[in-house]
Amino acid sequence: QINAQRLWDSIMETAKIGGTAKGGICRLTLTDLDRQVRDWFVAACEEAGCTVTVDEMGNIFARRPGKDNSLPPIAMGSHLDTQPTGGKFDGVLGVLSGLEVLRTLKDTGYETNAPVEVINWTNEEGSRFAPAMLASGVFAGVFTRDYADGRKDREGKTFGEELDRIGYRGTEKCGDRKLGAFFEIHIEQGPILEDEDKVIGVVTGVQGMRWYEVTVTGFESHAGTTPMHLRRDALVGAARMVEAVNKVALAHPPLAVSTVGLMEVRPNSRNILPGEVFFSVDLRHPEDEVVAAMEIEVREAIGRIAAELKLEAAIEQVWDSPAVKFDPACVGAVSTAAKENGYSHREIVSGAGHDAAYMARVAPTAMIFIPCEKGISHNEVESAEFDHVAAGANVLLRAVLEYDNR
Amino acid sequence: QINAQRLWDSIMETAKIGGTAKGGICRLTLTDLDRQVRDWFVAACEEAGCTVTVDEMGNIFARRPGKDNSLPPIAMGSHLDTQPTGGKFDGVLGVLSGLEVLRTLKDTGYETNAPVEVINWTNEEGSRFAPAMLASGVFAGVFTRDYADGRKDREGKTFGEELDRIGYRGTEKCGDRKLGAFFEIHIEQGPILEDEDKVIGVVTGVQGMRWYEVTVTGFESHAGTTPMHLRRDALVGAARMVEAVNKVALAHPPLAVSTVGLMEVRPNSRNILPGEVFFSVDLRHPEDEVVAAMEIEVREAIGRIAAELKLEAAIEQVWDSPAVKFDPACVGAVSTAAKENGYSHREIVSGAGHDAAYMARVAPTAMIFIPCEKGISHNEVESAEFDHVAAGANVLLRAVLEYDNR
Ligand SMILES: NC(=O)NCCC(=O)O
Ligand SMILES: NC(=O)NCCC(=O)O
């Protein structure tokens, strides 16, 4: 059994780094606050007797040796970066539960067969630098290091220069490290477990998701003197496109979701017809074919609206993360661990992307979900119960040992 | 006759202060660039033998004495601030044509009866600090000094602290100065004069305009895990409201215009449903009753859309500038001046707001328009012809003398 109070205290302690007035965290990846929480994490891992390695993408690996160190490590982890208006649990729970497992092994002197590692992945959220799960993606060979280094935030700063700036560019080549398995615990970020009063979600996979960037170009002109019929207003076009993107998910009920989360208007002046609007599109469904169909519908709608309003619209796909099925043996280890601990549980598919989705490409992988209040996440009020956090970390501990004992 | 080349050269010289790669100007009010162009203007006025006074709103008055200095001055002017993507003529033409008239009077040793002044009004554009025509509004008693000082830009800086910062807070109480008349020359900013091949627009008035700020509040949540039917997406709501605002003008053809020029999305992250959207609304029509009807329709639509989507929407009116009719004697002086110079001309109502609209409340006022290319304004490609600029300034000179000789 893990030390639930110690885990909770660690979550609350790190929550102060970037903590917001509304009780959330704003700790965007590769900012000074990200450096601070990384420093905290490295110190805590070293104190727990681990050896810390940082790879060239800033991913942090803390290893506790096993009896046979020629075996690839069983890894746990998630991310310490947050959304601009993030909560205290998203990502943090997975990293600190992994740390708590290592602390518990140390306290009890338990010797695993394989080494055990806890990992903090860089830029999981994808909020500052799109796409999400960028550094676990490089680890899994989905993206190149150069591609990742060149990703820009909305101010034009690159991932690479910001990683160098905070001093977390390691030397180990990203992806060189072989993992024996990967377990990630996370809040569900949706309402299902709470609705059904289940403590543990045995995650069988992750739905498919694609991201796009759309730039709509019209013609800037004076709001008071440009007659309606002569306007080429990029925001009127973008508004219709937002409505169309929303409709595309409604046409594939009940599981499809579609979102425009980011929009920038230029020049953004009250008495100028917007000349350019930039916005993001996020499409998701558990089946890749449905995501593909949604993409076609979105492209068609955007093209049609642009033509109707004499606007130009450029659509760029910036992410395609196909649906993932996790490893049956790892999923089985989670399920057994939940059962043996006596926690109510059910199988579940993740609606959110996770580093585990990319890890599944290079190592046997599974995830553990715990409920979060009203399913709310990516919101400063995000909340999880002490007992659920404890239960999740205990399932993580037991799943790792289960897998280690096979 | 004014010196057309000297006027053109002055326009091109000041256009370098904040000049953009696309040939426009970005010289937002009360920035360092605004200070630079003010310094240039003050020096040029002093060189032309004028006495310069700055009032407490940063309005700059340069006076050339007349034969009878107990008479209130005949004033000319406009503004040197620009939109973020403004052109070289909007506002600048009016100030520098006034300066050119004073230079011409000096060159020829012409003595007017009344003193003649050229004025640079602070924050005409309303882009950085809403509403537009703020400091001429204080001069005319429409706004108080405290109200103006407290206006905030989108970063939260106030008009008052920025005016102090650039060192253009004068001591004269704003509005204390009595004006005998006010003449403003401006580019039309619309297509009518060019379409009809007229050189001079004799402006008889300004249409009514109102500005609003709308804040739509929904609930931030995860783009991947929040089912469509549980969403309270503020951007989906705002998108429908943009469409509704656009339709309101279309319902009052052909003269009504309505625009959403500024929009900010929060937290503006690709995988978060927007929790809050802030946007501006600009409604205009030559008849105040139609503007009032449009306001009712916009409020109704925003309320209905918010209710449909379980969002909250707060609407605040931030500006109401009723339709203006200019002084018949001043309009007559412009018309006579156009005729005597042999320029083709027509009467016209301004679609844009101008400092003259507020001056009309405290002094006999009129305006002179010249064509601009394709009617384009509030755009870096804004352009006017040398001959039209010369014609406009000659009409200004003659209208002032005409009025002075009554
Ligand atoms: N877990 C999580 O919120 N990840 C961010 C990537 C996504 O948008 O799903
Ligand atoms: N002339 C001009 O563009 N003034 C700005 C105020 C307005 O929006 O009409």
TrEMBL record, chains A, B:
Entry keyword annotation includes Protein biosynthesis: no
Every Peptidase M20 dimerisation domain range: 205-307
Gene3D superfamilies: 3.30.70.360, Zn peptidases
Keywords for the protein's UniProt record, in alphabetical order: Hydrolase
GO terms for MF: hydrolase activity
Spans traversing the lipid bilayer: none
Domain of life according to the entry: Bacteria
Pfam families the record matches: M20_dimer, Peptidase_M20
Family: Belongs to the peptidase M20 family.
Name of the protein this chain belongs to: Zn-dependent hydrolase
Species per Swiss-Prot/TrEMBL record: Skermanella cutis
